Amino acid sequence: MPMPTPTTKRSHTLPAIITRGPDEVIIVTGGAGFLGSHLCARLIAGGARVIAIDNLSTGKRANVAHLAGTGRFDLIAHDIVMPITIREPVSAIYNLACPASPPKYQMNPVHTFRTSIDGAQNMLELAKHKSARILQASTSEVYGDPEMSPQPESYCGAVNTYGPRACYDEGKRGAETLFYEYARAYGLETRIARIFNTYGPRMDALDGRVVSNFVVQALAGQDITIYGTGEQTRSFCYVDDLIDGLIRLMNNDDGVAAPVNLGNPREFTVLELAKMVLAKTGSASQLRYLAALQDDPKQRRPDITLAHTLLGWQPTVSLNEGLDRMIAHFGQELGQQSARVVS
Ligand code: NAD
Ligand code: UDP
User: Fold this and answer.
1) DSSP for 17-72?
2) Under 8 Å between Cβ of 331 and 292
3) Residue 99: inside a domain
4) Gyration radius (Cα) of the chain, Å
5) Residue 191: beta bridge partners?
6) What domain count does the chain have?
7) Average pLDDT of 295-307?
8) Residues near ligand 2 (Cβ within 6 A)
9) 283 occurs within a structural domain
10) 233: CA distance to ligand 1 center in Å?
């Protein structure tokens, strides 16, 4: 399949939801997780019928409980490592199933790897059988510990195949290869989103990722756990922006099979993030420096030129604004209960 030539530039409006007919469904694997639950809600709000497929390992039914009453949502408890048969005609499949938090994906690394490889192949087979378009939730982790910044899609990455992050990074890289080969062999309409660190409401408070950890720790008055020096950088995208980007990419008709970065190009050190969270919460929590994690990328910042040119997409929510929403959400969720975070 030829590489896409960016030709169109569109205004930044919310994307319409496209299905091929009223009886057709959109499948979201990982639909009960953080990103998946927001995606299901947005698709349903746009008029779609959605089936979420989720093994409920890091996701939970509560994330999608509010969708049950819409009459346009079903949740199938199923592990995508195993094939699945769907009776309904399917317009599109968003393949999001996979734990995304390092402590979670390292708990059962072989299964994480199989989720990306066997799971992706099962979903590609389903897409082939249904003649459906399929989008893979890939990741900035395919760049590993990058030697260049920002990272454009053409950068091939610096990834350790033999370390604790490999089950995730190499699984996602393998999934991209499967998408590439299915598009070439069967003319399948494929999309690949390379997602950079995304945060927002409905992240699991005990998930172990940095934004949720810091917010929960600050609200609970616990030490803020900094791995290493805190000088490593990440670029944080608010969930609403990311979902907007995923839908635009799926709906894009220009045949863009090649990977597209989706993320917020504004880069922060982990220490800067910690200080922002402390200032916003007024917390008396102290910074606690812990050993650096093996293979932890030192920098990460997306080049989003392609997404901007091709999809008319760019993030609109600053970290300042997004953190306010996140803190309000976790403040409510934690309420009276005290939380111990994964560290
Ligand atoms: P999450 O852990 O909240 O959600 C993942 C969902 O997939 C959960 O509901 C989980 O139960 C389900 N799942 C896991 N393995 C499964 C399997 N074998 N079969 C069926 N369901 C399974 O993570 P998230 O942040 O919502 O991430 C969603 C997707 O986006 C993942 O594929 C992740 O790799 C990708 N991604 C996320 C980020 C981010 O910052 N959030 C960044 C890059 C890529
Ligand atoms: N991190 C940290 N303290 C925490 C959790 C994470 O210092 O309590 C750091 C982690 O070492 C990494 C960055 O924050 O450098 C982002 O970590 P996260 O797990 O959110 O995502 P990823 O490493 O996959 O980008």
Assistant:
1) P--SSTT-EEEEETTTSHHHHHHHHHHHHTT-EEEEEE--SS--GGGGGGGGGGSS
2) no
3) yes
4) 19
5) 135
6) 1
7) 98
8) 101-102, 197, 209-210, 213, 225-227, 232, 234, 270, 293, 296, 343
9) no
10) 22
Write down the H helix ranges in the chain. Answer: 34-45, 102-105, 109-114, 120-130, 166-186, 210-220, 239-251, 270-281, 305-311, 319-334
20 pLDDT more than 90 = no
Q: Give the residue among 100, 104, 342 at the shortest CA–CA distance from 225.
A: 342
User: Which residue type, as a one-letter code, is found at position 63?
Assistant: N
Q: What's the CA angle centered on 113, arms 111 and 115, to 5 degrees? A: 65
Residue 222: partners with Cβ closer than 8 Å, 6 or more residues away: 216, 285, 340, 341
Residue 34 lies in a domain: yes
Answer yes or no: is 14 within a domain: no
- CATH code (residue 195): 3.40.50.720
Contact 37, 70 (CB under 8 A): no
Atom 18 of ligand 2: nearest residue by CA position = 209
Rounded CA separation 242/97 (Å): 16
All residues at 6 or more sequence positions from 27 whose CB lies less than 8 Å from its CB, including other chains: 50, 51, 52, 53, 86, 90, 92, 93, 94, 123, 126, 132
Which residues contact ligand 1 via a Cβ below 6 A?
29-30, 32-36, 54-59, 79-81, 96-100, 115, 119, 137, 139, 195, 197-198
Show the domain range for 183: 25-200+237-262
Q: Residue 209 Cα, ligand 2 centroid: separation in angstroms?
A: 6
**DSSP string covering 278-318, please?**
HHHHT--PPEEEEPPPTT--S---B--HHHHHHH-------
pLDDT tens digits for range 68-114: 999 999 999 999 999 999 999 999 999 999 999 999 999 999 999 99
